[in-house]
Amino acid sequence: MGPPHPPGPEQSAVWRRRFADEARAERPDLATLCLLIGAEADGSLGEAGMDAAQIELDQLAGELPFRPGGPRAWATALAEHLGGRQGFRGTPGDYQRLESSLLHAVLRRRRGLPILLSVVWMEVARRAGAPVYGVALPGHFVVGFGPQEEQVLADPFDGGRVLTGPDADLLVAGATGAPLDPSMLTPADPLDVVLRILNNIRAWAAARPERGDVALWAVDLSLLLPSHPARLRYDRAQLLVQHGDFLAGATELDAYADVVAPVDEPAADRVRQQARAARAMLN
After folding, report:
1. Element (H, E) at 141
2. Alpha carbon distance 35, 42 (integer Å)
3. How far apart are CA 247 and CA 238, in angstroms?
4. Which of 19, 43, 171, 250 could form a disulfide with 7 if both were Cys (CB 3.0 to 4.6 A apart)?
5. pTM exceeds 0.85
6. Which residues contact 154 (CB under 8 A, 6 or more apart)?
7. Local structure of residue 18 (DSSP, 8 states)
8. Could you give the CA distance from residue 219 to residue 217 in angstroms, rounded to a whole number?
9. pLDDT digits 0-9 by tens, 3-35
10. In the 8-state DSSP scheme, what is residue 163?
C-alpha cells in the first residue's frame, strides 16, 4: 500500500486554519497539532479520526497505575505499558514510511519514528499526571521524567528503555561525533517538537522527488508556526519552481531576498537572479 495522500484544497484550508490557531494558542496542544499534520497528510483522516486518536490516548493513560512513584517509576511504568503490553516501538524500516511521522498512523501501527513515539509517551504520561517532557537529543528524540537534578531518560523507539548516562552519551556521539552537552537535556518546547516533525516529513519527501507535494505542504505548515527559520521561504520558493509554478516561486524568491538584503546584500542579489530566471521560464 502506498503512502497517504493529502485532502482536497477546501478541506486542507480548514485544517491549516485550525493548525495556525492552535499553534498560536496560549498553551498549544501537541497532540492536536500532530493530528492536524496527519489530517493534512492523509485525506482519509477526518474529525472523527482525530477524535478517536485523542480517545485512544486517554484510554492508554487510564490503563497506567495511579501515580507509581518518582521519575524512574514513571519511566518504568510507561515502558512496561506502552513498550511492553501495547507494543509501541520502532525499527529501521520505519524511517522509510511517511506514516511513521503521523500520530494517528503511529497509534494504529504501534510503530513510528523516535519523535512520534515520544509524542505518544508524552501525551499518555501527561494525561496520567507524570512529570514528562520531550528531550531533543541530536538525531534521536527521547523523553525525560522529573526535574533536571533527578532526570530519568527513556527511549520510546527502543520500547521505552530507561537510559543510563553512558547510553545518552552514545546516542549523541553516534549522531554528532561530539560528546553530550547538558544543554541538550532541557525540555523541548512543543512547537519546536512540531517543527522537527515537519522537518522529518520534508526529509522523507526530499528523498522521493515524486512526492514534492508532501514537501510543499510540510513547509507550508512550518510557515504557520509563530517562529520558524526565514530560510523556509526560500525552500518553499524552490519547491514551487520545481512544481512548475514559476511565477509564485519567483514572488517568494523576491520576498526572501527582501528579508536577506539587510544582512547579506550579495546573497539577496543571488536570490533575485534566481527569481528572474524563474520568471524567464514562463516565456
Report:
1. strand 140-145
2. 10
3. 11
4. 43
5. yes
6. 75, 78, 79, 121, 142, 143, 144, 145, 160, 161, 162, 163
7. H
8. 5
9. 778 899 999 999 999 999 999 999 999 999 999
10. E
